């Protein structure tokens, strides 16, 4: 995996930790009505990578094999969902 900002491979893997109780943050799709059917799920674990060179923080979601298969079945609906997630409408 490379840093999307500077291209460095000097990434350190970690987890996002909630400040209050130490509980990890998860990824919850913004459109639960659609994605709940797709994934049959609520929250997936987030893996984070910090770049030593430029301090960029990258986040990935640990979708499982079942999620990926269901995503591919519903591929036609996905771009709209991703656009909404990327536009910042999601709540934390
Ligand atoms: Zn970087």
Description:
With 92 residues, the protein is of the alpha+beta class. The chain has one domain (11-75). It is built from three helices and four strands, in the order ββαββαα. The protein has helices at residues 32-39, 65-73, 78-86, and strands at residues 11-14, 26-27, 44-51, 57-61. Strands 1, 2, 3 and 4 form a four-stranded antiparallel sheet that branches. β3 and β4 (57-61) form a beta hairpin. The longest helix is centred in the last third of the chain and has 9 residues, at 65-73. Bound molecules: zinc ion. Zinc ion binds at residues 3, 5-6, 8, 51, 53-54, 56.
Could you outline the blueprint of secondary structure elements for this entry?
Blueprint: E1 11-14, E2 26-27, H1 32-39, E3 44-51, E4 57-61, H2 65-73, H3 78-86
Antiparallel strand pairs: 1-3, 2-3, 3-4
The protein binds zinc ion (ZN).
Search tags:
binds zinc ion, 4 strands, 92 residues, 4-stranded antiparallel sheet, alpha+beta
Q: What structural category do the secondary elements indicate?
A: alpha+beta
Query: So how many helices?
Result: 3
Number of domains: 1
Large-scale geometry: globular
Query: Percent of residues in beta strands?
Result: 15-25%
Briefly summarize what is shown.
This protein has 92 residues and is α+β, with helices and mostly antiparallel strands. The protein contains 3 helices and 4 strands; from the N terminus they run ββαββαα.
């Amino acid at each position: 995996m490379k840093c999307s900002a500077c291209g460095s491979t000097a990434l350190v893997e970690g987890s996002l930790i909630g400040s209050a109780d130490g509980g990890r943050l998860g990824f919850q799709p913004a459109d639960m009505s659609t994605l709940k059917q797709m994934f049959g799920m609520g929250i997936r674990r987030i893996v984070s990578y910090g770049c030593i060179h430029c301090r960029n923080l990258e986040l990935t979601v640990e979708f499982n094999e079942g999620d990926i298969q269901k995503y591919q079945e519903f591929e036609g609906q996905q771009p709209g969902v991703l656009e909404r997630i990327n536009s910042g409408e999601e709540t934390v």
